[in-house]
Amino acid sequence: MSVTGDITTVGTIAGGAVAESRIAGGARKATALIVEDHPDQARLVEKILGLRGYAAVIAEDGETGLRLARERQPDVVLLDLMLPDVNGFDVCRRLRGDPATMLVPVVMLTALNDHLHEMHGFRVGANAYLTKPYGIEELFEAVAAARAWRESMRERALHGEIHVELNSEITLLKDLNDFLMNVCRATPLSGDQVMQIRQAVMEMAQNAIEWGNQHRSDRLVEITYRIHADSLEIVIRDQGTGFDRESLPHAAAADDPFSHLDVRDKLGLRAGGFGLLICQGMVDEMRYNGEGNEVTLSKRYAPPEPGSDA
Length: 310
Known about the structure:
By secondary structure, this protein is α/β, with parallel strands linked by helices. It has helices spanning 39-50, 62-72, 88-97, 115-123, 136-155, 169-186, 191-212, 260-267, 275-280, and strands at residues 30-35, 54-59, 76-80, 106-110, 128-131, 161-166, 221-227, 231-237, 285-288, 294-300. The chain folds into 2 domains: 30-155, 3-Layer(aba) Sandwich (Rossmann fold), CATH 3.40.50; 161-300, Heat Shock Protein 90 (2-Layer Sandwich), CATH 3.30.565.10. Helix content is 37%, strand content 18%. The strands form 2 sheets. It has a 5-stranded parallel sheet, sandwiched between helices. Strands 6-7-8-10-9 form a 5-stranded antiparallel sheet, with helices on one face. Helix 2 (62-72) packs parallel to helix 3 (88-97) and helix 6 packs antiparallel against helix 7. The chain is globular and about 60 Å long. The N and C termini lie far apart (52 Å).
């Protein structure tokens, strides 16, 4: 595969090797930031994307990739996971936690092909996860989908009420990341507060999938977000029969947070059961309906000043 004659490679920036491709004459191409510590792999991705007119910026470590993402605002980031300094999962998490880069599309490219790593990728905010070896069309499709995500996020804002339905954890992770982006833009909540809400929603939604719906894919979990002038309200509802909140031997209690672990071990359940206790400390209010299959989480904030643009 050859590189077209109108592309040149220039320079090295301290802190990591960087190469930039430009059209002759200075016209701007769509930019792809490739964070990859193996030069041959990086050049291969650069050449493939060059077929679709992308200019490449290459960073050989995670810190350089983070800095270039802030400085260059690329159209897409192609992110390897096994980097020499910061792993790709942390790079993605930091991109999503920075208001300057939270809407940068991220495609993870990795040899880690197991389900747990894929789930972790979506958990920290990846838009796509491709395992090596992947096809050229697969890469093009992943990049196109990631960029379409950013455009959809720019076109819509979270006002009033948003309703989503999901039946799997991957769907949950993708929808929850979209929700995070919009909450950051639509409320005065700090980044730390938004991440606390994310964790609370994740815990409750996973409980709904695992306990309420018993992992049945034909049953949906409904999540409704409501933005008010002085608070954010999130309602999570499953299609199960509910539960008795006074009888939860498999869940941690505030006055005895560890004895439930023996119960979970006897039942053959994964270690955990701290979800309810964690959520109570992350939101201002948590209340259930009578049946126990719907929970409402509330987080309050100061309303905008009269006459402000908020």
